[in-house]
Amino acid sequence: MKKRVVVTGLGVVAPNGINVNEFSEAIQQGVSGIQKINALSELNFSCQIAGLPIYKKEYLNNYFTSIEQRGLQASGLEYGVIAGMDAWRDAGLEVAQDGDPLWHAGVIFGTGILGTEKFREAIYKVDDGKVRRLGSTTVTQTMASGISAFLGGKIGCGNRVTTNSSACTTGTEAVMMAVEHIQRGNAEVMLAGSTSDSGPYVWGGFDAMRILPYEYNETPKQASRPMSADASGFVPGSGAGALVVESLEHALARGATIYAEIIGGAVNSGGQRQGGSMTAPNSIAVQRCIKEALIDADINADQIDAINGHLTATTKDPEEIRNWSEALERSGEDFPLINSVKSMTGHCLAASGSIECVATVLQLKEDFIFGNINCEQPHHEILKLIDTTQIPKKTQYQKSQIIAKASFGFGDVNACIIFKKYNR
User: Fold this and answer.
1) Quick one: which of 235, 348, 388, 396 could link to 224 by a disulfide (CB 3.0–4.6 Å)?
2) Max CA-CA distance within the chain?
3) Model confidence over 273-310: pLDDT tens digits?
4) Which listed residue (47, 181, 250, 347) is catalytic?
């Protein structure tokens, strides 16, 4: 039998909250972290707004030594280490001291791109013939696995320490990979999550694709409109989310606080066939992923109380709702409540899945379903499938037993996790 896996620690760095308490309050109150970014207007971006975590540089003293901060120019590394270490501390876990590492503990922490500012600096120095002035931190700040290596070293993990990368599915996939590693008996504790760099060098490609909203540059908090009739593209964002996942036996033995149980999930790809492409999902694969997650969790579709969707505020939102409806065979008023964190954070790219997994767990633990802001009038194609009452505009305080979280990414990749309120 597979081991039961629970969530015992949370960490988050989001545009609307740089710790779990701030983030929880923000999503319950409908607080947006999207703002105008002057650098984007100076660089002639069409979309000049983004979701950007805000903290003072001194805040890094809580997570990085003075030596580690020398030449630190990787925002994603900062976000990931803050969220990851917060989650580890929240779980009440110690770091390894001198001697053996923690053989039973590991890290799976994903990213889409890391250290873009550092890499840009390196390119200019190399082009100027100043390669010897790159410094000793260029590689560790720009290699994708820099984030998992940093966290693994700070904690002293002796189990698997690795980085995954699957576009917008990265964070949700990382959590599922960690769960499976524990279920197989290969570890007792895993720190799972994802992070994403911020800035024009990350967001520029999306602006060039013309898939970002440009008409809200002066009203940024109204810009991210998942499921809305007048949604006009996703707002780029950044940050990191982290979860400590642990075998139930290990968590109980040390008296850990248990936020929720992860009872199943699935990860797949549409193969860029049957309508799927580098940028569009294969709906058959999406539905298959959801159905396989239900099978893995050993639950029926009618047991799902709510869905924390991917829902990016693009033309794909109605298609996502249709896929959920067909996969669950539920529609109208029978459809689960559904929401999107992106209405308040924007689309945090590789970090989106992990940030949204944190939001899902908080809803189960604290008994609420957060509301969707900027969705006064849902898209007419969505309303053909589900009742408007299932798209809450304000936070509803109620107990839920099971919430599904899914992410879908470029490359036609999908991941779905089923979270359950922990019951002995």
Assistant:
1) 235
2) 65
3) 999 999 999 999 999 999 999 999 999 999 999 999 99
4) 347
pLDDT tens digits, 325-365: 999 999 999 999 999 999 999 999 999 999 999 999 999 99
Q: Where are the beta strands (DSSP E) in 292-343?
A: 306-308, 337-339
Active site residue 347: yes
Neighbours of 366 (CB within 10 A): 11
- Give SS3 for 211: coil
Question: What region does 135 belong to: left with phi over 0, alpha with psi -120 to 50, or beta?
Answer: left
Taking the domain 5-221+239-253, which CATH number applies? Answer: 3.40.47.10
380 is catalytic: no
Measure the CA–CA gap between 199 and 74, rounded to whole angstroms: 10
Residue type, 239: G
CATH number of 266-420: 3.40.250.10, 3.40.47.10, 3.60.20.10, 3.40.50.300? 3.40.47.10
φ and ψ at residue 65, rounded to 5 degrees: -75, 165
DSSP 40: H
